[in-house]
């Protein structure tokens, strides 16, 4: 009379395991879909890479073309970078170095050009 009970119990256990396997598979797919992978040739770079590129860019500043006050300030900042690293520069010092490097400079590779803030006279 109770010969169907083991078959029912076996079906219940197999159903529970298969349901669990389905949920685990779905969770893996969701996690894989959320994972963000950097695409090749993207504009993202780590902070260390950006600092190294900035330092190389700033060292190419032609000091002979600058006013003596700016030249002295840039030389002081370059000595500071030599001693303690690029991380020690403040935001204002970085902005100053960037402005001095961009004076009549060609466009840097890998950097998006800034939009023109002035409207065209059309």
Task: Describe the protein.
- The chain has 122 residues and is mainly α.
- It has a domain of 55 residues.
- The protein has four helices and no strands.
- The radius of gyration is 30 Å and the shape is rod-shaped.
SSE diagram, text form:
Elements (H helix, E strand, L loop, with lengths): L3 H31 L12 H13 L8 H17 L6 H11 L21
Task: Briefly summarize what is shown.
The chain is 59% helix and 0% strand. The chain is mainly alpha-helical and 122 residues long.
Q: What is the rounded distance between the termini?
A: 94 Å
Helix content: 55-70%
Provide the succession of SSEs: HHHH
Mean pLDDT: 75
Would you count the extended β strands for me?
0
Pick out the low-confidence regions: none
Q: Into which percentage range does the β-strand content fall?
A: under 5%
* Number of helical elements: 4
Note the main sheet.
none
**Which outline best applies?**
rod-shaped
- Helix and strand content put the structural class at mainly alpha
Rg, nearest Å: 30 Å
Key phrases:
single chain; 122 residues; mainly alpha; 4 helices; 0% strand
